[in-house]
């Protein structure tokens, strides 16, 4: 760690205030170029602690930047991980208030719900599938707190990987009922397909993102609790949205899930 506890707490307060007030900010590494990964995840943890202390409930986790399309779009090379609290959850077919966000984008994802705790190191796709209760379609709404989505990976991790809102729904399936590599996804905005993908776009298999998350947490002495909902990462590039947009994700054999931006 290169940052003091006080600096981590101040940066967490700053980023969370930006999130709650829908205000953008330059990336943290502009003022803290030596920030390391422990600092970055430390700031993310401090944001979570602030939310929990106000009564939020941790309901899951997310992997981000897990597809080549996303990595290319953001010009980065490796996945990142964040948390999901109940405040981020939007009911199926529900509305998202754009005034609460800075510059939202949507991503088509496969969500996993675990029936067993998942623990690294050495976690692999087989272990993930064995621990998964069901999978279902999900749309993640990301909203980087950084001006013009300009950031580096450590700044993104500190900013809880741009997590803002999400919706899951459609048809939940047992993991053995579907080949998650070949499953097709169509993301529609206002009735028009705007992004097309397949499960394999996410690290070859969406369960690989969950395994990476478990192995990442193991390095920090943590595990993924049973019952967690996990977003495995966008299968396509992210699509910008604005008030008035209706977004629908259709996943092969898994139905659809939608959101409206007002
Ligand atoms: O879920 C994601 O892939 C987002 C990762 C953070 C980078 C971004 O804001 O696009
Ligand atoms: Mg995502």
Task: Report on the architecture of this protein.
The chain is of the alpha+beta class. The chain has one domain: Alpha-Beta Complex (Fumarylacetoacetate hydrolase, domain 2), CATH 3.90.850. Helices cover 26% and strands 28% of the residues. The protein contains six helices and twelve strands. It has helices at 5-21, 37-53, 68-74, 125-131, 153-158, 206-219; strands at residues 58-64, 80-85, 95-96, 105-114, 132-142, 163-168, 184-189, 192-198, 229-231, 239-240, 246-251, 255-261. The strands form two sheets. Strands 1, 2, 4, 5, 6, 9 and 10 form a seven-stranded mixed β-sheet that branches. A five-stranded mixed β-sheet has the order 3-12-11-7-8, with no helix packed on it. α1 (5-21) crosses α2. The termini are far apart. Bound molecules: hexanedioic acid (0L1) and magnesium ion (MG). Residues 62, 64-65, 70, 74, 80, 107, 140, 142, 144, 156, 161-162, 233-234, 238 line the site of hexanedioic acid. The site of hexanedioic acid has 16 residues, from β1, α3 and β5.
